[in-house]
Amino acid sequence: MFRGYHAVFITLFAVACSKLEPAAPAEDSLLDGPVEGLSNEEHLRFLRGDVAFNDEVFHADNGLGPVFVATRCGSCHAGDGPGHPSTTLTRFGQSDANGNTYLDQGGPQVQHRAVPGVAPEVLPDNAPSARFLPPLNTGLGFLDAVSDADLLAWADEHDADGDGISGRPNWVERKTYSPLRADAVEQAGQVIGRFGRKGAVYDLLQQTANAYNQDIGVVSQFEPIDPYTHEEQDPEIAAATVHDVVFYLRTLKAPIQRDKDNPDVIAGEAVFHTIGCGNCHRAELRTGPSPIAALAHRDFRPFTDLLLHDMGPGLDDGYTEGSASSAEWRTPALWGLGLFPDSQGGTYFLLHDGRAHSIAEAIDLHGGEGQAARDAYQALPASDRDKLLRFLQSL
After folding, report:
1. Which of 40, 238, 351, 375 is the one with CA 20 to 30 A from 325?
2. What's the pLDDT tens digit per position in 12-39?
3. 67-68 and 113-114 as β-strands: parallel, antiparallel, unpaired?
């Protein structure tokens, strides 16, 4: 009888405790998690990359620094969302056809932290610079799988159609360790960049290897030059780990829109397109072939064209990368926008440097090719502005 009573007690206790456990968050409230359709082997590789990205902490004994920005990858991307001003990167010098004239002074990035006994870097006097807020990580594999042909089809460098929008790709030098895309279009030996605030990064391998090197001070076989000594060193991280992180970034799910059937959200998207926001923030894209079946030939809605656009003097920081001018910025994807505050301490930090503290403020700061859409937004009745913002918060 005691055994029966004990069993009943344990059962009731377990049920009571389960009621105290918090409910799992809705999938559309999270930016992290794998894309649907991965194989068991791919899931395991995703988890390896997740651990390396979010859990591995570097210190002086396993490769950190001696100058650095962060001690682990996930420090700058809470929940795989965008960064906070405390994690903003300062890029300086010029990495265009004129060459970076500040490489001997720590360029192209300020490592403002250092291990004990080493002085952190400071921005050289008069160096052209820009502050880059770390972007969100989710959905990168979809953006990576869009074909070069599509990007070129959307480009209109000389505004041939007269709509005031002249998006163009950033032509960059390809790192020798990055394999050439099967669909790659080359121009004078250069390739199309699609990652980074100015689209100056060719692929996710370059993005990852460069982040280990410039953000954490960790050299790899891909980026073997130490950012402090400027000398080649033996790898401090295994190539397999770098590739696992690349796979993790490539297979993070796309953000899921919320309240998409709400009448105000639907009306707000109509306003979005009517005033011209969709001319740069292209709603629907499609991936091409991919070695990851879950990413191949998929329609998705990121709201970007991955092209450079001149955003006017207000967003001109005097710094450039690749073929981009100092006023040109790659159209940021808008998916996940409504969840940004969850990664940014409860508020918004938008645009390339986080200067805008609300969606409305970010719109108001659009100039150049974005000015017509901004002016149209400002001229909307208050009810239409509210519906537009409601739509953007649903993304």
Report:
1. 375
2. 445 555 556 677 889 989 999 999 999 9
3. antiparallel
Burial of 171 (0-12, 13-18, 19+ CB in 10 A): buried
Q: What pLDDT, on the 0 to 100 scale, is given for residue 19?
A: 59
- Dist CA 250 CA 205 (whole Å): 10
Rounded distance, CA 339 to CA 202, Å? 27
Contact 285, 307 (CB under 8 A): no
Q: What are the structure tokens assigned to 307, written together?
A: 């092209």
- Strand blocks (E) in 11-135: 67-68, 89-92, 113-114, 129-132
Side chain identity, residue 350: L
Cβ-contact 129, 88 below 8 angstroms: no
Sign of the CA dihedral 357, 359, 364, 368?
positive
| Predicted confidence (pLDDT) at residue 8 exceeds the cutoff of 50 | no
Residue 165 φ then ψ, to 5°:
-110, 125
Residue 121 has what DSSP assignment? P
Structure-token pair, residue 122: 């400071």
- Other CB atoms within 10 Å distance of the CB of residue 87: 18
pLDDT at 23: 76
Helix 382-394 vs helix 263-274: angle between axes, to the nearest 10 degrees? 100
Element containing residue 285 per DSSP (H, E) = strand 285-286
Q: Could you give the CA distance from residue 255 to residue 374 in angstroms, rounded to a whole number? A: 25
Q: Is this structure's pTM higher than 0.90?
A: yes
Q: Which residues contact 292 (CB under 8 A, 6 or more apart)?
A: 38, 42, 141, 250, 251
How far, in Å, CA of 332 to CA of 187, rounded?
Answer: 24
Length reported for the chain: 395
Average pLDDT in the chain: 93
Tally helices (H) and strands (E) across the chain: 11, 10
How far is residue 139's CA from residue 294's CA, in Å, rounded to a whole number?
12
Taking the C-alpha atoms of residue 152 and residue 113, their distance in angstroms, rounded to an integer, is: 40
Cβ-contact 370, 312 below 8 angstroms: yes
Classify each residue of 184-216 as buried b or exposed e, where b means 16 or more C-beta atoms within 10 Å of its C-beta.
eeeeeebbbbbbbbbbbbbbbbbbbbbbbbbbb
Q: Are 357 and 349 in contact (CB under 8 A)?
A: yes
